[in-house]
């Protein structure tokens, strides 16, 4: 937060490639004490990164403000109901099995997925105004699809919802630069600058200070260009 984070995302279950699920009770044991402590000591909102409704309920009861679901409300039938009960914002991420094997337009398929997420939320009583869309860079996608989606982020705005992007240190950087995770900062900064240029509302990163500086610089240049065009 001291480096400029406006939101803290907390999770107790790794979702990196090849991950193994932890028991439900263990995930709750990991996140609830952290959220309880931070909710009473930090002035910024807390997000719970989970795809399980029981974990989401426990985290929101402990003081979390937002739900971040890597399965876009399409895996756990009860998750949308929990979000409706607590009236919280929800990040719905694109994570579609078989997506990497498809050769069609990735943005068109992603939009259809998000439409299902929005419909699921609506049936549970979560209005579209509470949803943020995450393209899910690195989840069930080829590296070429990841690059294409990053290049076409503005096309996701057709659904009228804010965007949430998490690409920090991901393998798409290694695909281009051939670097291990610990050396992917510059590639991440390039993605963050691109996202800021396109007006992405929330960018999830590891290295907060450097990414925030890059984002502010890109946003300032974009804003100045817009002003000149109006003049």
- In the CATH hierarchy, the third-tier topology is known as TIM Barrel
SS element count, helices: 8
Proportion in helices: 40-55%
CATH class: Alpha Beta
Distance between the termini: 37 Å
Q: What oligomeric arrangement do these chains adopt?
A: single chain
Number of strands: 7
**Rg from alpha-carbon coordinates:** 18 Å
* Average pLDDT, all residues: 96
The total tally of domains equals 1
CATH homology superfamily: Dihydropteroate synthase-like
Task: Note the main sheet.
Answer: 5 strands, parallel
Across the major sheet, the strand order is 1-2-3-4-5
Walk me through the structure:
The protein contains eight helices and seven strands, in the order βαβαβαβαβαβααβα. It has a single domain, classed as Dihydropteroate synthase-like (TIM Barrel, Alpha-Beta Barrel). By secondary structure, the chain is an alpha/beta fold. The protein starts with 7 loop residues before the first strand and ends with a helix.
List the helices and strands and how they pair.
Blueprint: E1 8-10, H1 24-39, E2 46-49, H2 53-62, E3 66-69, H3 79-86, E4 90-93, H4 106-124, E5 131-134, H5 143-151, E6 164-166, H6 171-177, H7 185-197, E7 202-204, H8 208-230
Parallel strand pairs: 1-2, 2-3, 3-4, 4-5, 6-7
Helix pairs in contact: 1-2, 2-3, 7-8
């Amino acid at each position: 937060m001291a480096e400029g984070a406006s939101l803290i995302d907390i999770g107790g279950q790794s979702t990196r490639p090849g991950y193994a699920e932890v028991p439900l009770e263990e995930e709750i044991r990991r996140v609830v004490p952290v959220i309880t402590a931070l909710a009473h000591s930090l002035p910024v909102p807390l997000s719970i990164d989970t795809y399980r409704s029981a974990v989401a309920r426990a985290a929101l009861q402990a003081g979390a403000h937002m739900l971040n679901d890597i399965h876009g409300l399409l895996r756990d039938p009860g998750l949308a109901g929990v979000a409706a009960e607590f009236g919280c914002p929800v990040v719905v991420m694109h994570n579609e099995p078989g997506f990497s094997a498809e050769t069609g337009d990735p943005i068109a398929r992603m939009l259809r997925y998000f439409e299902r997420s929005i419909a699921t939320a609506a049936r549970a009583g979560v209005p579209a105004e509470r949803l943020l869309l995450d393209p899910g860079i690195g989840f069930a996608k080829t590296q070429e699809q990841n690059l294409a989606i990053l290049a076409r982020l503005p096309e996701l705005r057709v659904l009228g919802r804010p965007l949430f992007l998490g690409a920090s240190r991901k393998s798409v950087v290694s695909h281009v630069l051939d670097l291990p995770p610990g050396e992917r900062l510059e590639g991440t900064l390039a993605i963050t600058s691109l996202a800021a240029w396109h007006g992405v509302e929330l960018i999830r990163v590891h290295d907060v200070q450097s990414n925030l500086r890059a984002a502010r610089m890109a946003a300032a240049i974009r804003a100045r260009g817009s002003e000149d065009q109006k003049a």
